[in-house]
Amino acid sequence: MLPINSSQKLSFTKSIDHGDLVIIYERHDTMKAVKVSEGLSFQNRFGMFKHSDWIGKPFGSKVYSHKGGFVYLLAPTPELWTLVLSHRTQILYIADISFVIMYLEIVPGCLVLESGTGSGSLTTSLARAVAPHGHVYTFDFHEHRATSAREDFERTGVNSIVTVSVRDIQGEGFPEEFCGRADSIFLDLPQPWLAIPSAAKMLKPDGTLCSFSPCIEQVQRSCEVLRTNFTDIRTFEILLRTYEVREVKMDACRDSNNESPKKPPCKRRQMIGANNGDDISSPTVMAKPSSEARGHTGYLTFARLKCL
Fold it and tell me: Where does S-adenosyl-L-methionine bind (predicted)?
């Protein structure tokens, strides 16, 4: 991500400069994060790309290698960063992240508490949501993971609005300095019910909490504890199905005698797509579910602090 100017919105309109982080895009499932450094080069199956050729180009540019191959230089948005970051732990993906930010009602200026940090996938999106005047305080009990997360936040330019601390939230709770100050809290813990009483003290009146758990037994136990201080308790499972849409030629499909197949019935042709007349060899747009669609990731349990 680009460095954040406190007087402006987060923006990716500037040109690429030395030291910037860019996403090298070959296709939707082949991307890599690279720090631009004049004098270095990037090499892949399409050839060699000189970093010096990238400097001064706007994000989104199509650049060519010495062999004529090309890639796109994209801005490291939280969505793309989620797809290329190092997986130190299981991460949250875009469908869950967007739902969390909406249901936690996170807007610019919010103070958000998160535990644990993990690979920092959600944290980066939280940072963009609260920018430029809000702040995200994220905690992880594992010191090495916390250190790696800090380095990643520096690379993506959100370190000015993200503070990473090493702390066992399940055992110690959140620091007392945040008592009554947090707008929203996110928990990604093995035993979230242990941290819920502390979270209730940190939230502002009518503040929101979300707990992410892979197992329904964790959800049940968390809900039992939530009922003491929270209301509007809801649990969701987000399932995302992606599709591949591409153009194909029907005459590419032949039978065992190497003959073109018979035309499908008129009704079926209409369902498949729009052809030029009845010519079966004309290009047709086909759509099919992606073979790499993810299934269950976890359960998202939301609750709102009671106003006493």
Answer: 119-122, 140, 168, 188
